[in-house]
Batch of 2 targets.
Target 1
Amino acid sequence: MHPTKYLPSPRSSLVIASLAIIVGTGAFATQEKAKPMIAVIPKGTTHEFWKTVHAGALKGASEAGVDILWKGPAREDDRDDQIKVVESAVSRNVQGIVIAPLDEQALVPSLREAAAGKIPVVIFDSGIKWDGRSSFVATDNRHGGSLAADEMGRILAGKGRVVMMRYAEGSASTGLREEGFLSTIKEKFPGIEIVSSDQYGGATVDSAYKVAENLLNRFPELDGMYSPNESTSYACMKALTDLRRGTKVHLVGFDASEKLVAGLRAGSIDALVVQNPFRMGELAVTTMAKVIRGETVPANVDTGCTLVTRTNIDEPAIRTVLEPPIAEWLK
């Protein structure tokens, strides 16, 4: 006798086919829900600048259909903590890392490890001495420093004594702002004497305030100060106010925060070179999303900077940069 072959009935065939469609559809739906995860690692999480970057990164993630993991050190001088954040992101097998390196050299080994694990890296805000990045999304910082120098030269009519407070050793972005300021003063304004340019404010307002206070006491005959980031700018403004030197010493700062903009309106600051951190965060994430999808991206993306004074502060284009929709995204 030949064994009887099982032939499914028309009804059972329909059930099997239906189940296959359901299972297949469920797998497809699950696949669609799983968005690529991008680790976004700022230099710090305290300053207003990074909160604005975070909001922009969330907008970029929404536009690009990805999720972000936002994590960074609390202090902008904690290189070890930022390295640990990178290592944690690698161990979680994220699809991409977007990072603003605290140090142009210290982060290189951990980012090389990420690249070796086929995790692409987009650098933003501050450069790094490593050619393995997919793209660099940042302000033209040297140009920003040059804008500050041009304004200082205009305010002082090309003559006077100026101090420049540096931010922190190893910070590529602020280093370029400092270089841009010094080189432009030297080239365009030979009548301006830079009496100090080797003092570092450090990562906090408190440390920068002490340095600013010492500089003001050291140079009683001073006409101008330049500071290259949010914390040093606020520290200089506060020191000038506390020492009652604000009417005699002109301050050109870098970056914007609620307190710095208020200081500009009140006359405590003469001008601010302002980046667009919201757009920086947005473009850093959308650029990485393109990398993940295999699209070609530019090697460098300039997110722009502009000089803000009491004359132009209420212009619509300036207000857009100074008042980004942070609350809308950081819910």
Target 2
Amino acid sequence: MNELWQIVQSVLVKNSLLTAFALVGIIVGLSYIAAHRFASGRVHGSAIAILIGLILAYVGGVVTDGDKGLADIECLAGIGLMGGAMLRDLAIVATAFGVRLDEFLKTGLSGIVALIAGVFVSFGLGALVAFAFGYRDAVSMTTIGGGAATYIVGPVTGTALGASSEVIALSVAAGLVKSVLVMCLTPIVASWIGLNNPRSALIFGGLMGTTSGVAGGLAATDEKLVPYGAMTATFYTGIGCLVGPSVVFFLLRSVVGT
């Protein structure tokens, strides 16, 4: 039995990336089953999968006393690559390919205003929360504000500005909380805000910005709306990464002085 386990472990280690894909596939499958049976589809399977992933990352860090979560376990080292920037950015860009450009153009001025307002309001609210919790320098406020935009914009902004690892971690946490909340609450409020057509989905994606949260929430509302909301959410991420370390940072520095 011990020899069999050693053989299995050796195969898993040598094919750690495939092992990572298999593990994530199992988690996602179980999450969708749980969402269907216990939440009647009101909580999307993606939200449950993210929650399980966060718990497993914590457990992996405790068990290995490392800083990479499950990726510190040898046979699951492929999770570090699978969850890295390369595949993450590929997934984000790929979400926009299912949309029709003519539908985006139909949003007109309201879509553009929603996109710009969504980015700057998120940065502003995040910066105010950071200030309230004692972060009074422009670098930290901008980084945490970026996290309030998305958990991608926060680290990009913090890295560009030289923020501490603690502040960058807080920005990621803020973005993850926002993503899960948007994912869970979208199906509940969809009927109240008229989220039932491509135009409203485009505007919604521009306001919320978190691609994973918008995609998961719209999938639980109406799967046909996912590409539209995801496209403007992707634009949101790009704009946030551009204006965060530049326009937003200089604005905040002019206000707080440091």
